[in-house]
Amino acid sequence: MSQQQSTNQRFAQFKLVLLGESAVGKSSIVHRFVKNTFDDLRESTIGAAFLTQTITIPESQTTIKFEIWDTAGQERYKSLAPMYYRNANAALCVYDITSRNSFKKAQDWIKELKKQAPEGIVISLVGNKSDLEDQREVESSEVEEYVEEQKNDGCNIITAECSAKSGDGVLDVFNRIGRALPVDRVIDSRQGGAASGTGRRGGGVDLNRAKPQSAQANSCC
User: Fold this and answer.
1) Which residues lie in coiled coils (predicted)?
2) What is the CATH number of the domain that holds 59?
3) What domain range is 25 assigned to?
């Protein structure tokens, strides 16, 4: 059985970009996901940082490699963001649950993605610092209301909360994104093919093609 599962295993590579205001913990989320580490004194990202990590989706027998671009949150770097979300397959818009302003900034990023990002990009809205519940400014009901408004506008968004500090919920964020990506169109390299556009610049498959129903459920156009 294990040999059959190995033979049927598919491989996919997708480009994922993190967006959000400075100090919301984007880099901390990535480092928790990639290296399982956390640094209270982490310096702000300059420009963007590139990391990779893989996950396995058992139900679809797919190993997904994420090519992750962690962008700087400072305003002076905002003009560089399109360089990183261009051709991205997924975007993780991060806010700090203790900062209402960061939630508004995350909404601004989603608005920009809807206008300029590739059609079919999977968007996830993630509230970091869930370990600071006693300092919460952004209620889950507000997030639900916003997401429902976006859904009525034809944009489905994956929502989650996590703590990069404790690690709670971080892996789940990326697993949910992985399940929303169109892996059904990825050609297994063991069968002589490869995912289209898997180079580091573009990443992943061409989401401008017709999307399967499973992918449409969590994509934003």
Assistant:
1) none
2) 3.40.50.300
3) 10-220
Burial class (CB in 10 A: 0-12, 13-18, 19+), 107: middle
pLDDT recorded at residue 192:
38
Residue 5 lies in a domain: no
Residue 47: CB atoms within 10 Å: 13
- Structure-block tokens of residue 117: 């990002």
Q: What is the pTM of this model?
A: 0.79
The predicted structure's pLDDT at residue 72: 74
Q: How far apart are CA 78 and CA 80, in angstroms?
A: 5
Which pair of tokens denotes residue 35?
A: 């290296």
Helix 26-35, helix 170-180: angle, nearest 10: 90
- CA quadruple 150, 45, 31, 112: dihedral, nearest 10: 10
Closest CA to 110 of 209, 14, 20: 20
- Please tell me the distance from the alpha carbon of residue 13 to that of residue 26, in angstroms, as a whole number: 21
- Would residue 2 count as lying in a domain? no
Q: What is the CA radius of gyration of the chain?
A: 17
Q: Could you report the average pLDDT of every consecutive run of 10 residues in the chain (221 residues)? A: 60 96 94 91 62 94 95 63 90 98 97 93 98 98 97 94 98 97 65 38 36 43 51
Two structure tokens written together for 149: 């408004």
Helix and strand numbers, DSSP H then E, in the chain: 7, 7
Q: Tell me the longest C-alpha to C-alpha distance in the chain.
A: 54
Total tally of structural domains belonging to the chain: 1
